[in-house]
Amino acid sequence: MNKTIIASIMPEESRMALVEDGEPVEYVLERGATGHLVGNIYKGKVKNVLPGMQAAFIDIGGDKNAYLYVENVDANEGRLTVGQDILIQIVKDASGSKGPRATTGLMLPGRYAVLAPYADGTGVSRRIEDEAERQRLRQLADKVKPEGMGVIVRTAAAGCSETELARDVEYLYNLWAALAARAKRSPAPTLLYRDVDLAIRIVRDYLDDDVTEVVIDNRDAYGRVCDLLQHLAPAALAKVKFYEDPEDVFVHYGIAADLSRLLKREVELACGGFLVIDQTEALTVIDVNTGRFVGDTSLGDTVFRVNMEAAAEIARQLRLRDIGGIIIVDFIDMAKEEHKQTVLAFLAEKMRQDRTRSKILGLTSLGLVEITRKKGRPDLNSLMYSECPCCEGRGRIQSPETVAINIRRRLRQAAAQRKLASRLVIQAHPQVVEILSRQGELARLERDLARKLTLEAVPTMHPECYSILYDKE
């Protein structure tokens, strides 16, 4: 597999795409104003403890308090009390009215390892499957681990030497020592550690042996990435390229069109079928449709082929859009149990390529597939879109017929209460005015109300809005 990382870094916005065999599979977008907090460590102050919710709210100095579940509190902290100072790390960004979610199980990630200051023991990433390599890395981790702390070996450490792992752990230990010293002398709430920016996280989280090229269009970011690699992995320096062409880097590498379709509701499949992806606050629903694909054999085989292609695309879309939480997939109904199990196994195989933890819970009694995927940063939908001022987030507005009926009802109620002048002007959207002025409709309304009505179409008026004005003439 040919893997390329393409990064576009601007002061206002940073974008990164992971491309596998010419197709984008992951996309990260960050903006300075969006308040990306995941990974940040704070010295916070407990503002409120809610025993009924088994949670506490922690002041971290921002607009919203972080919330901390009791299950995410280290046993050494004891019982939380209002006014208590506490070290926490953000594990999930704020979303909607919810504040960021926190834990006291602090983690400092490096390129090859993660240091857990309040844990003890070692672990190896589950994505390293070779048992001999897992054993070797666990032994190395035991040797380089600071006393009383925990070390988790990351996937990128596969094949690394003891020197490389030790250097990474030493860097993280020194970082923790500086952070802990600052925590002792700083009042709460205080930001103690801010997670590194996207350019550096490319090296830390994405650059592995399978990546053949890293392309960066910002000279400062390119320089910082090279400086870090010079220290951590000099052999990888040859993979990093500075892009200086005036054409947008995503356009140049042929992925801009793919990314522009990222948030479309419908996703076309090569066979002619399509997916419909609907995201709500509670969950995401994905519906699979045959579309124009009719197949050339039996109905069962046609459905099976569409579902197999859909399974691969669903796994890609979850990564690409970074959809988290509860996901429900409605595959096309399959009669054969063998087909059902094959599609589920293929979906699981494709989702194993995802860096984010996910779980397929199987088929429900209604034939729906349940999936959970870890939520971290805000998804692309919330970053790139805001609530529509016309429909207020519903995705729909009242029909012209409904608005016209509302106008008639309001006029009749006002007339019954003797609150109407003898001559009125009704201003509304042209589609509403068209309905009100249908043959006989206006005359009948004037007769019922015993009033003279003038209709005025206002193209710039919101389709749901209207005005009833007194006509001085």
Describe this structure in words.
By secondary structure, the chain is of the alpha+beta class. It has 4 domains: about 1-40 and about 195-260, Nucleotidyltransferase, domain 5 (2-Layer Sandwich), CATH 3.30.420.60; about 40-105, Nucleic acid-binding proteins (OB fold (Dihydrolipoamide Acetyltransferase, E2P)); about 265-375, no CATH class; about 400-470, Hypothetical Protein Ychn, Chain: A (3-Layer(aba) Sandwich). It has 12 helices and 24 strands. The longest helix has 24 residues, at about 160-185. It is globular. It starts with a strand and ends with a strand. The mean pLDDT is about 90. One of its GO terms (cellular component) is cytoplasm. It holds the Pfam family RNase_E_G_Thio.
User: Average pLDDT, to the nearest integer?
Assistant: 90
Determine the N-to-C terminus distance.
78 Å
As a percent range, the share of strand residues is 25-35%
> Strand count, sense and closure of the main sheet?
6 strands, mixed
**Radius of gyration using CA atoms only:** 29 Å
Helix/sheet category = alpha+beta
Shape: globular
Q: How many structural domains in the coordinates?
A: 4
What portion of residues is helical? 25-40%
Q: What is the tally of helical segments? A: 12
Low-confidence stretches: none
Spatial order of the strands forming the largest sheet:
16-17-18-19-21-20
**Total beta strand runs:** 24
Features:
12 helices, 31% helix, alpha+beta, 6-stranded mixed sheet, single chain, 5-stranded mixed sheet, OB fold (Dihydrolipoamide Acetyltransferase, E2P), Nucleotidyltransferase, domain 5, 27% strand
